[in-house]
Amino acid sequence: MSEQPTTTATPPAPPAGPDLLVAAEVRKEFGGLVAVNDLTFTIPGRAIVSLIGPNGAGKTTFFNTLTGLYKVTDGEITFDGEDVTNKPPHAITERGVGRTFQNIRLFNQMTALENVLVGMHARLSGGILGSVFGLPRVRREEREARERARELLTYAGLGRVDDELAESLSYGDQRRLEVARALATEPKLLLLDEPTAGMNPQETVTFMEFVSKLREERPVSILLIEHDMKVVMGISDRVTVLDYGEKIAEGTPQEIQKDERVIEAYLGKGATQ
Amino acid sequence: MARRRDRARGAYRSYRSQAANRSGVNTLRGEWRKLPGPVRTFTPIVILLTIAILYPFYLSSLPTGNVPLIYSFPSVRSMVTILVFTTMAVGLNVVVGYCGLLDLGYVAFYAIGAYTAGWLASGQFQQVNFHFGSVGISRDARGIHISIWLVLIIAALLTAYGGVLIGLPTLRLRGDYLAIVTLGFGEIIPQFVRNADSLHGFDLTHGTFGISPIDSPGFGNRLHTAVGLPSAYSQEFTADRLFFWTALALLLVTIFCCIRLRDSRLGRAWIAIREDETAAGAMGIPLMRTKTWAYAIGAFFGGAAGAFIASFNAGAFPSQFSFNISVFLLCMVILGGMGSIWGVVVAGVILSWLNVEGLANIGTWLNNNIFPQSHQIEVAKYQFGIYGIIIVLMMMFRPQGLIPEARRKREIEEGTRGALDEPLYEMRGANEPGAGERGSGGPIPRG
């Protein structure tokens, strides 16, 4: 198919091989409400995949089943060849799924650096006795962790805020800190839940550039949730559209932009005629 | 930790030196700040510690009988109780202050610790005759008699295990529900102790009479003759002093461990759970395990303190373990500043002192000096009303506690690392109440 002029960079072709994440017929019901209706969804390695849909389409619910926050009613989720269905959140994070939240959920009374250090929790091993007695091994690990955390903050564009409390950061910086914290978990898959919500257009552009840089520089796949189609079109390898908990379209951004059902879901019936 | 603070002080100094005119005090302050970091960190600690350690020696030369307001200084015997309760408050601070788990049943851990000492260092179990490092009692005395030093550790470990057992089913609950369940456990344990004097004919706790006497700590005859250490506290003329120093050591060890844990990977995880449990889980922190550890560590120190005070009182009685103690310890944590170790220590000492003898002494002084002979008031009778008023006033005027946790204070004092970020101070200054934008709506409450 022909390349559209709107696409900024040609994304590197995802390597062939098994998908990083496979969600097979995932279903989530809240009482009588079907929030996610037998959704099948895959994420290839080192790709940027987007999940879009109008408000209330079930995007975040699906997201929360992937990260273990919600238990699925039915279906199976496989990550990196391992069944992670209904595993607790920390176990899924340990296997390499990092996430941010739609409404920023930082540890407000902790400094930016400490927030990132918390993200490293599963990658560190310092135990109680080692910490109390200050064993050299634990001290070294702490020192290195701090060093790494500083690098991550710089990487996320947060140079001089190490000792600032998270709650005193600006909104854009808090979003960046959430990403830095998620990266600290050393994810193979990074889930970003409406990361540009509340950002102005300029901040959105800067942030999306950061996301594509991430994919190029780190061995990580990214799943983006957005309700704003424009945001994801430029950088996604593949877009999936949800409406009322069901997948109504899937394909490249170009295909999605032309899809009648998508336009209908977003603009209402009649817009296609 | 210290390094971070130094950096902040460095930044603070350069900020201060611009603004402050150089009066005598400021010069002195400037000189103080030039001293190397460790000196500045440890000097106040060493001074305070010296004052504390020497207390039994200079107490007799302090004025007594009509000291303004406090009437007289606490006796060494009272100080032991004060220190032990402060130790428990520091332990509870791990659960409530760090991990944000409201525990209304901490007294259960105190009870488990005390009764462990009762079982392992007294004549409670007449069926056996087991001695291990016991001091100050006849070799033929029946019962289990293990060295109190060892009992302290066993009691702490056993109580920590009890904490895990209580924690596993309850820690799935959040907030108020957890508080109610812990409240239940806090009531169950003393009730059990009161009634467990005939478990199928087996006397486990000696019912309402409690277990007494419990052995006293000591170092044994060999160390006594070799280095002059007391062989058994109870046989010494200065037993109270020895208990005082031991209690002080117990408190210091507890503080040390809690500081180390706070700054560790586990401590960060606790605080993260306190701040946002969902986010903490999503960052790879196993919630149940981490919360259970907080419970176990809190219980550990509660158990050690309980065992120690049982040895000090030479007995463990069910009437000691009332719900009031749980609330009282919680008050110390809240009053001191949740999560702030030094705050909890200060509040613990003040509140325990009020409880042990302070209120009565203040009452005596007021009756002698303020109230007329015809209107004498027994202040100690109004104890709980007074505590209530203290808590209400604190919540109104200083909700962050006497000495707020460093991270909360940092918000006000500190900018970023390095002294180059001067503009940040201006911005911060503008955010402070009264410094800028006066009249435009006042300060925005944080948090």
Structure notes:
The complex is a heterodimer of chains A (273) and B (447). With 273 residues, chain A is α/β, with parallel strands linked by helices. Chain A has 10 helices and 10 strands. In chain A, the strands form 2 sheets. Chain A has a 6-stranded mixed β-sheet with strand order 6-7-8-3-9-10, with helices on both faces. A 4-stranded antiparallel β-sheet of chain A has the order 2-1-4-5, with helices on one face. In chain A, helix 3 (112-119) packs parallel to helix 6 (171-184). The longest helix of chain A is centred in the middle third of the chain and has 20 residues, at 136-155. Chain A is globular, with a radius of gyration of 19 Å. Residues 1-14 of chain A have low confidence and may be disordered. By secondary structure, chain B is mostly helical. Helices cover 63% and strands 2% of the residues of chain B. Chain B has 18 helices and 3 strands. A 3-stranded mixed β-sheet of chain B has the order 1-3-2. In chain B, helix 5 runs antiparallel to helix 13 (287-313) and helix 6 (107-120) runs antiparallel to helix 7. The longest helix of chain B is centred in the C-terminal third of the chain and has 29 residues, at 341-369. The two termini of chain B are 24 Å apart. Mean pLDDT of chain B is 84; it is low at 411-447. The interface between A and B is large, with 46 and 43 residues.
